[in-house]
Amino acid sequence: MDNFFTSIPLAEKLLEKNLTSVETLRQNNPDVPPVMKPSKLREKHSSESGFSGNMTM
After folding, report:
1. Torsion of CA 26, 27, 29, 30, to 10 degrees
2. PiggyBac transposable element-derived protein domain spans which residues (predicted)?
3. Which residue range is the domain that position 25 belongs to?
């Protein structure tokens, strides 16, 4: 899915229709929590993940 149109509400609407999606979120997207944004405190080339219900980020 194009990252210009990716959002949590869109993913939720798709799930309501039993459709799944794999999306790319830009780091400046308001749906991305601060803990998942780049940080000098985190090791280089590391990653963060999170989940809520049936959604994983």
Report:
1. 160
2. 1-57
3. 1-39
